[in-house]
Design brief:
five-stranded mixed β-sheet; about 250 residues; 7 helices; Alpha/beta knot; about 30% helix; Ribosomal Protein L25, Chain P; 13 strands; binds S-adenosylmethionine; eight-stranded parallel β-sheet
Length: about 250
């Protein structure tokens, strides 16, 4: 049986016995059919992953799994390029897809944002449940892709409220298919290797003229990804791939 890899919600140390949450325990026992003696890998927001063995499963209907951690390994699956995605809310399940792929491509943080032309309308309750849903997608993608950090998916918020939170980035790109944007390659050729990059991707309707003027005033760098208009989910993934290839760990 393949060794399962799971994110644990608290810090981990070698030789510790970890009691897994009811949700993780249910998944391991009732879905993956793990039993006492099986090996597992656990990780929690560090460069380490821990190898452990299931030492007990308490309860039949609602099992609780205990795991004894007996080895630790330092692994490098995090990119030296810290990438933040500011993504205009996209319709249907496109956000699920964007978040899953962004985590696989090494994103550090994701801000789902509401902008002037956003077609998605969510009340406070729906926003909170969406955030939990997206955070869980990020956890699954980190487990599956071998990452040891789970990127934070923030609560959906107005783009204007999100912008002050990204100003520590060395470079902020606004993806825009029209002027004043210029070819991405031309911009990248003028850059020293950045360590911390943020990128803004518009929703299906794109950014409004007012937003573009605002981003210009903030000195964001406008770039195009070629002559064709891409769907928002394509643009987000293409930009991350190109930046990780140029400055990060996709070679
Ligand atoms: N009608 C919109 C417009 O003309 O701006 C199209 C928006 S597009 C479907 C959604 C988002 O994807 C855009 O706001 C932009 O961030 C990004 N995008 C799509 N194609 C792009 C391209 N060729 N270059 C840069 N960004 C692009």
């Amino acid at each position: 049986m393949r060794v399962s890899r799971l994110y644990h919600s608290e810090g981990l140390t070698l030789n510790q016995t970890v009691i897994l949450t009811p949700e993780k325990s249910h998944y391991l026992v009732n879905v993956l059919r793990h039993t006492v003696g099986d090996e597992l890998v656990l990780f929690h927001q560090s460069t380490l992953e821990f190898l452990g063995k299931i030492i007990s499963i308490e309860g039949k209907k609602k099992p609780i799994v205990s795991v004894a951690l007996y080895a630790q390994t330092e692994i490098k699956t995090e990119s030296d390029l810290r990438l933040t995605l500011i993504q205009g809310l996209a319709k249907n399940d496109k956000m699920d897809w964007i978040i899953q792929k962004a985590v696989e491509l090494g994103i550090a943080e994701i801000y789902p944002v509401i902008s002037e032309f956003s077609e998605v309308r969510l009340n406070a309750e729906r926003m909170a449940s969406k955030q939990i849903h997206w955070q869980n997608i990020a956890i699954s993608a980190a487990e599956q892709s071998g990452r040891t950090y789970v990127p934070l998916v923030h609560m959906p918020q107005k783009i204007i409220d999100c912008l002050p939170k990204i100003n520590k980035a060395d470079k902020i790109f606004c993806l825009h298919p029209h002027l004043p944007a210029v070819n991405l390659n031309d911009k990248l050729n003028t850059l020293d290797t950045p360590k911390n990059v943020a990128m803004l991707v518009g929703p299906e309707g794109g950014f409004s003229p007012k937003e573009i003027v605002h981003f210009e005033q903030l000195n964001y760098t406008f770039v195009t990804l070629g002559p064709r208009i891409l769907r928002t989910e394509t643009a987000a993934i293409v930009m991350q791939s190109l930046l990780q290839h140029r400055f990060g760990d996709i070679h």
